[in-house]
Write a structure and sequence with these properties.
Elements (H helix, E strand, L loop, with lengths): L11 E2 L1 H8 L4 E4 L2 H6 L4 H16 L2 E8 L2 E4 L3 H9 L4 E3 L4 H7 L3 E3 L1 H11 L3 E3 L10 H4 L4 H8 L3 E4 L8 H10 L3 E5 L19 E2 L2 H14 L4 E4 L10 H18 L6 H12 L3 H29 L1
Parallel strand pairs: 1-4, 2-3, 2-7, 5-6, 7-8, 8-11, 9-10, 9-11
Antiparallel strand pairs: 3-4, 3-6
Helix pairs in contact: 3-13, 6-8, 10-13, 11-12
Bound molecules: pseudouridine-5'-monophosphate (PSU) and manganese (II) ion (MN).
Pseudouridine-5'-monophosphate binds next to helix 2, helix 8, helix 12 and helix 13.
Length: 311
């Protein structure tokens, strides 16, 4: 049988990321969908640099992930980040979309699900994002549940996030994370964070006191079963979105999405964009802030993990 054509489905590592991984030094994966589809242009470009800087401040090398011309890249050059942030037509790629982009030579931003897959394939143990996707409100009618959840059930890495996006059905999402056996720990809290707000109103069973504990939980999980450890890192209450404004603008954004008939993978970007405009930039500022905090904590956890495996 002839050999299958050699498609570059394996991720290509930037020199800095490749060197760090080869030397056992800490690396943190970053997704590109939140840049391309979650934040408006041109603010997304500055956020991309600031998030990478936050990972470095935490003690790790950043590896922003995207697919460019059919090649999955782990660690982007400044020009490549420009491409991700500038192109309004860039595709949004979940796990199921990756093979199409690779085979047809397309470009796209990676979501939590596909970033986690590519990061783990590259040997990266820690990933920072804003908020996970999850079960949408009214999912009983729409069946809209993010592929992030099933991806995390089978991908071994730490995901640092501020909970799940508060446009979702948070209790239902936590139930699905339980069914899927995804480990969830709060960072210094047993209240599940609410993305823009510190507390979603749902409780967690477990919390970790510091980055070292988070690293130890992941080390144990990796030995026991494949799958992710979600480290839920809340904003401090004095940095959260005003909860009254939060509830008002979310109700408006979900209603607008319903009226516009938005479906599928367009729902989350539509709602986030509506929120940024309806709150006159308040949700944007808070979204960037929580991503930066998650990136720094992820850097610290990656540094602790690298220390554990050197013992
Ligand atoms: N976190 C943010 N902004 C975002 C996202 C996460 O602060 O835009 C993205 C992630 O890429 C996540 C996606 O995987 O939203 C979820 O999209 P969906 O609901 O269509 O699965
Ligand atoms: Mn969806």
């Amino acid at each position: 049988m002839p050999a299958a054509p050699d498609l570059p489905a394996r991720p290509v590592l930037s020199p800095e990321v490749a060197e760090a991984l080869a030397g056992g030094r800490p690396v943190v994966a970053l997704e590109s969908t939140l840049l391309a589809h979650g934040l408006p242009r041109p603010e997304n470009r500055r956020a991309a640099d600031d998030v990478e800087a936050a990972v470095r401040a935490g003690g790790a090398v950043p590896a922003t992930i995207a697919v460019l011309d059919g090649v999955p890249h782990v660690g982007l050059t400044a020009d490549e980040v420009d491409r991700v942030c500038a192109d309004p037509e860039l595709a949004k790629l979940g796990v199921r979309d990756l093979p199409v982009a690779v085979a047809l030579g397309r470009s796209g931003a990676t979501t939590v699900s596909s970033t986690a897959l590519l990061a783990a394939a590259a040997g990266i143990d820690v990933f920072a994002t804003g908020g996970l996707g999850g079960v949408h409100r009214e999912s009983v009618d729409t069946f809209d549940e993010s592929a992030d959840l099933t991806a995390l059930s089978r991908t071994s890495l730490v995901v640092v996030c501020a909970g799940v996006k508060s446009i979702l059905d948070v209790p239902a999402t936590l139930e699905r994370l339980e069914s899927l056996s995804v480990t969830v720990v709060g960072y210094r809290t047993t209240s599940f964070p609410g993305f823009y707000v510190a507390d979603s109103g749902s409780a967690l069973d477990w919390s970790v006191a510091d980055a070292a504990e988070a690293a130890r939980v992941f080390a144990a999980r990796r030995e026991l079963a494949p799958g992710a450890v979600v480290v839920a890192n809340p904003l401090p209450p004095d940095q959260q979105l005003d909860p009254g404004l939060h509830d008002r603008v979310i109700a408006g954004a979900l209603a607008a999405a319903g009226e516009a008939g938005v479906r599928g993978k367009d729902v989350t970007p539509f709602v986030l964009d509506h929120l940024h405009r309806a709150s006159e930039g308040a949700t944007l500022a808070v979204n960037v802030r929580l991503v930066l905090r998650n990136a720094e904590l992820a850097g610290q956890i990656a540094a602790e993990l690298a220390g554990l495996s050197h013992r």
